[in-house]
Amino acid sequence: MKKQILSGNEAVALGAFQAGVKVASAYPGTPSTEILQNFATYKDVYAEWAPNEKVALEVAIGSAMTGVRTLFTTKHVGLNVAADPLMTLAYTGIPGGLLIVCADDPGMHSSQNEQDNRFYAKFAKIPMLEPSDSQEALEMVEEGLLLSEKYDCPTMLRMTTRVCHSKSIVQIDAGNQAAVPVAEGFKRDLKKFVMIPAFAKLRHPLVLEREEKLEHVTETTAVNRIEWNDKKIGIITCGIAYQYVKEIMPDASILKLGMTFPLPKKKIKEFADKVERLFVVEELEPYIEDEIRIMGLAVEGKIFFPKLDELSPDIVATGFAKAGVLPYDLPPVQEKAPGGSMPRPPLLCAGCPHRGLLYSLNKMKAIVHGDIGCSTLSVLPPLQSIDTTLCMGASISMAHGTAKAMAIAGLEDKRPVFAAIGDSTFFHSGITSLMDVIYNKGNVNVLIMDNRITAMTGGQQNPGTGRTLQMEETYAVDILEIVRALGCKRVREIDPFDLEGTIAALKEEVAYDGPSVLVTKRPCVQLFRRDPQAVRTVDSDGCLGCKRCLKLGCPSISQGDIIPDDADKKERRYSNIDATTCYGCALCEQVCTSNAIVYVPQ
Amino acid sequence: MTRENNKKTVNVLVVGTGGQGVITASEILSDVAMRSGFDAKKSEIHGMSQRGGVVTSHVRYSENVASPIIMEGEADILLSFELSETVRWLHFLRPSGRVITSLQKIIPPAVYAGMGSYPEEAQTVIKQRTTDPIFVDALPMAEKLGNPRLVNTILLGIASAMLDLPVDEWKAVIAERVPANFKELNLVAFDKGRDIG
Description:
The complex is a heterodimer of chains A (602) and B (197). Chain A has 602 residues and is an alpha/beta fold. Helix content of chain A is 35%, strand content 18%. Chain A has 4 domains: 2-220, Rossmann fold, CATH 3.40.50.970; 224-322, Rossmann fold; 354-528, Rossmann fold, CATH 3.40.50.970; 536-599, Alpha-Beta Plaits (2-Layer Sandwich), CATH 3.30.70. In chain A, strands 3-2-4-5-7-6-12 form a 7-stranded mixed beta sheet, sandwiched between helices. In chain A, strands 14-15-16-18-17 form a 5-stranded parallel beta sheet, sandwiched between helices. In chain A, α17 (423-439) links the parallel β15 (417-422) and β16 (445-450). Chain A is globular. Chain B has a domain at 5-107 and 120-137 and 159-166: Pyruvate-ferredoxin oxidoreductase, PFOR, domain III (Pyruvate-ferredoxin Oxidoreductase, domain 3, 3-Layer(aba) Sandwich), CATH 3.40.920. Chain B has helices at residues 5-8, 22-35, 83-88, 109-112, 122-129, 138-145, 151-162, 167-177, 183-196, and strands at 10-17, 39-44, 54-62, 75-80, 93-102, 134-136. In chain B, strands 2-3-1-4-5-6 form a 6-stranded mixed beta sheet. The interface between A and B is large, with 63 and 65 residues.
């Protein structure tokens, strides 16, 4: 037995390996990405990045149909993409254990919404487990697979950012190899696996029967446990909120729920009957609280603990103070120090290949439907180059809708309509959108930012990179060929580091009457940076302090000393380029009208 | 009455900007705490941090740690890689808490876009709000030692002098985590930091 400090994600990967999971599929998405990256490092397992979550789950289902233990991981919004297979999978079931790890992002640290995916388990009527730390995450993997096998349905392991990315101590038993059921291979079972209406009608009652059986399981499972203490206050909680409750209310009685679908109604009733005041502390929606209300019990929850954002020990303490039950004084509110609110938003890196295109789009005064990925970072000044970001792949279809509406409604608008999407996002769900544009004779200018990687999630391989998750060589999908095959013959590559060429290409496509695709092909600077680069510097004899270079929003460019000037003019400062971070993309040299930015020979 | 847990657990908040080494520093600290026999937890948000944004990492250790996040007003040490970030997180310190901060300033491009200004009075504010803050010109120090990345180890060395964790464990973890050819240099940097603390 060895102790190690692991993140929740690392613990799930280890748990899956120890439980004999053989196949895993996923699309990268914060905060879930590291699960598959870690799992792929174990011996004798198969793991893959699928182009999107629907594909990944279907791969997992096909695998589990053979009886092999299987893992599918996703971020919360990814389960929306995989919801179609999920809902019918809940009818068919699978012989092999199938664990769906769903990582929610309360607080939207890296997401476009903070939906509470616990409702998916209830919606599909599949068992759901919720760990509170890395040790539980590890143990619940096998627990989930056993439930999946016994009740012929997938199990959802619902994590949140704070459980995925927090590290805590895990006891690791290297010799602990679970007793894994022997996979019996694919067996034909038409009434189970072919969901034509006649057969699906036979399966739906089984789903309801299963729910009843699971209702018994949840009453007796060890992961739903009561920690009796002072009975004046009883708190029902789950996930990371349990840790905050332990921190803030160490003397209260707690019903800690590790299995949150179905909920253990008898246990809840038993607990509620014995405590004077009953609280529910849960992140996001009143998922547990509403069920308790339906049971007719008096309960307090969201009146004191917000539905918005993630919880924290401070928020939980404030909630209990409001309820009048905090057993000590709330610490005095800590005032923030003056000067501590300077914004420091994340930025496109120095040398980011997206910058040239996004800067050009800003100059075009266009309507730009953006997509998920690093390019969303350009929404803030100075680049401010995108108008929308909704979900994976939406840029192209939304641009098509905007253009069609403007045309049919006769809306007077001189702004051209663009869609800007990354390579991985295009493979994920942009292809079908582009098919729609061409099929329905749309007129949209599509920009595919091909940086040769899935960048925002930290650099994962994708179908266009020519490498698999394990870095094995494979066929690299050719974006130009796909675009042409969809029927868009007007497609070419441009270099986003060539500003004049990029702006000229954009203008050309606007002038052309019909759909077109421009592919900006340049690798992500974070992942492919090679030193030394052609570093630029500012020649102080030439710099006028006009700030044109600062409009690029490059982290390497700053303002330095005041430019000496006797005339009574506005204060101007020299621009300054940090040689240690400059990549040498030369965009600043191209925007400088006084030739003050020059190449420094190494 | 005040919170009892408040006193038992050691809380270190490590802050800085993306790419500075905040996560590595907190990994080392939590590993040292675990090897010294404590329960240890740490929490941070990855994702956007790589791209120059604000990075914070919470490290907590004691016999038994529940929350991986430090409460405002309960940090024992604020270990900072960047001066304005020290000011941003100052309210997390308890009244007796100590600041260890690098004097390095990283001005975000947002300032040039007119979205705010750099707190030029940072040192004064820190002195007014805390007792015996440690300001260290860690970047030039590290460069003099031979590598700017040694800032990390210098700052940890200073923190180690304030934390009751065995120095051998510190050195063992640092030696394990840095590339073999930088081991000696890192141990020198650690001792330099420890002397300051």
